[in-house]
Amino acid sequence: MKNTDYLQRSLHSVWHPCSQMKQFETLPLVPVARGEGMWLYDFEGGRYLDAISSWWVNLFGHCNPRINAALKDQLDKLEHVILAGFTHEPVIRLSERLSALTGLGHCFYGSDGASATEIALKMSFHYWRNSGQPEKTRFISLQNSYHGETIGALSVTDVALFRDTYAPLLRQSTQVPTPDWRHAEAGESPHAFAERCAAHLRTHLEQHHAETAAFIVEPLVQGAAGMGMYDAEYLRQARAICDEFKVHLIADEIAVGFGRTGTMFAFEQANVHSSADTHAETAPPSRTRRSAPAESGGSVSCRTGTMFAFEQANVHSSADTHAEAASPSRTRRSAPVESGDSASCRPDTLLASEQAGIRPDFMCLSKGISGGYLPLSAVLTTDEVFQAFYHDETAKGFLHSHSYTGNALACRAALATLDIFEQDGVIEANRAKAAYLTQAAQPLRDHPRVKNFRHTGMIWAFEAESSTPHFSRVFYQQALQHELLLRPMGNTVYFMPPYIISHEEIDFLVAGTLKVLEQLC
């Protein structure tokens, strides 16, 4: 069957997400017959390098043989069972491993990222109610934040395109200034700008902490804001401010978790303390600067070898060792500093939670958690929060549920994904891969129509100066002609490839992107 046959059948039967269906009259769908590694193949032999990990979910390539094998094995054992009153091995093992990685306690499961956000918001609200402070019902998020499109998640989202239509349905929340360094003043470093934005958070909570339940934040990278990146100093100060005013801190690691920012979880980077000189060296001084120094990898380059972004607020290092040194720990098991795998799944590693640093009260996970295979999300929280729900009264329990909560197949895919992190030293390997891509992208950085070239871990982004109408749509179409799957957000072009991308594929990606830029800019 030809591509056009599947295209027509899809248009007659499928309502595609995040799309104006009428646009498919001139912007044809791409029917996918199969995937292999970095590549997607259509029904007529065309291929497309998946440079955005199929909406940021795929970590180790399409049809990964190791994840495939784990799922085939699980199919012969258990596909799914109700998690209310029952349990099973994959969900137990996954919960244990996520808890060890994050230092947080029990895992509550959902089906997608927005569900995780809903769970965290409800859990925070209910905690304060159970704790005798029912007046704490309000939430704060960052300017330009994105946390999902269900009603609760949309209430703390600040993207007008998604939010405005449904505004009458939404609960009011407050947005505080974003530390995204593109909004800094000329000559102001990302570190200094982060401190200035944190002061706004403090001012707000000084006045409104009594009615505020939680502050929800995308650590280090605001995805839907056009890959807005910021200094980890903001996370450090946010944690201290929330502690001071007794407000929960929710880390939305849905997009940035599982190695995307150079650490297993983005919040880990709030545990990396570097000198002002280091920040000045690695950060563009203003939003008008076109390029960051090539050796730095961009404005908030994260090469500390940890697994989640929030970890980097907990590692102390000098300017010379910002990218290499591990932190002292409270209860150090065995920190393999030489491997950089400080938050891997090995039982002898230094856990993220043990890095003499900070952690959120809630962590929301999804997207990469199952390697891009099956819908799954999780919210991890502290033992203190869990205990507030542990009671003889049923109404004091957290009575939230999803039919496929803790699905055995999805959990098994997640376990296989964590196995790959552990067995292949992925975080360490990604450092070298990120350095190669950043160097290969030098022609993009130097392009006269490119500004704000930036990089955090395995995420790259820049703005293209172009007068082309509907730039993102046209860029996407032209990229397909060069065998690339790229979906700009406005004029922001970004790369978020699976971690298996090879040097040859990196060169192919950069060369194709340059060709499209030359056509449109």
Short description:
This protein is α/β, with parallel strands linked by helices and 521 residues long. The chain has helices at 3-13, 53-56, 65-75, 89-102, 113-130, 151-155, 160-163, 190-208, 233-244, 276-282, 383-389, 408-424, 426-440, 442-445, 471-481, 503-520; strands at 34-36, 39-41, 47-50, 107-110, 138-142, 174-176, 212-217, 221-222, 228-229, 248-252, 265-268, 308-311, 362-365, 377-381, 450-456, 459-464, 484-485, 492-495.
Structural commentary:
By secondary structure, this protein is α/β, with parallel strands linked by helices. The chain is 34% helix and 14% strand. The protein is built from 16 helices and 18 strands. The strands form five sheets. A seven-stranded mixed beta sheet has the order 4-14-13-10-7-5-6, with helices on both faces. α3 packs antiparallel against α12, α8 runs parallel beside α9 (233-244) and α13 packs parallel to α16 (503-520). The longest helix is centred in the middle third of the chain and has 19 residues, at 190-208. Residues 274-305 and 315-356 have low confidence and may be disordered.
